[in-house]
């Protein structure tokens, strides 16, 4: 009759894994399935629990790191949250200085400041987001594609 509890545990852990997606509960579900098999072949509850613990530990230590490595390698990195805004263009809503300003970025109003000291971006100008600092977009001029990129002082183009 213990096999019913192992089925319930395996299904519950599998469902919870779908919600968390960290592959930990999946390893425990595999342990529950192994204990279910042990129960079906007639092992006593002590052996079933040991099988559950052993298989779960093996899966966590050996299989999970392998699966995570392959999953991360096969899944492209998609920038989200503030990192996704770096490189986008924004429209200045107020004059943007190295201390303050407002821009419209991705349909939202963001506090902003210039990336270079002393540079002022006037109202209604397109700027490029260089980085996000907290809740502030740090912006610079939009590079014209026909222009040569700027070079560091003392280097030749």
TrEMBL record:
It is found in: Membrane. One of its GO terms (cellular component) is plasma membrane. It comes from the Bacteria. It is a multi-pass membrane protein. Pfam families: NfeD (PF01957). Residues 84-141 form the NfeD-like C-terminal domain. Its main location: membrane. The chain crosses the membrane at residues 44-63. Keywords: Membrane, Transmembrane, Transmembrane helix. This is Membrane protein. It comes from Cellulomonas carbonis T26.
């Amino acid at each position: 009759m213990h096999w019913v509890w192992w089925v319930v545990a395996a299904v519950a852990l599998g469902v919870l894994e779908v919600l968390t997606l960290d592959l930990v509960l999946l390893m425990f579900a595999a342990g529950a399935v192994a204990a279910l098999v042990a129960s079906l072949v007639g092992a006593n509850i002590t052996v079933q629990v040991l099988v559950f613990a052993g298989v779960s530990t093996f899966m966590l230590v050996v299989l999970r790191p392998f699966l995570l490595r392959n999953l991360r390698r096969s899944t492209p990195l998609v920038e989200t949250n503030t990192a996704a805004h770096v490189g986008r263009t924004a429209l200045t809503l107020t004059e943007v200085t190295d201390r303050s300003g407002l821009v419209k970025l991705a349909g939202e109003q963001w506090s902003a400041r210039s990336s270079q000291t002393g540079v002022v971006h006037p109202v209604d100008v397109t700027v490029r987001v260089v980085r996000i600092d907290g809740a502030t977009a740090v912006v610079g001029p939009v590079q014209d594609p026909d222009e040569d990129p700027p070079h560091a002082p003392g280097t030749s183009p």
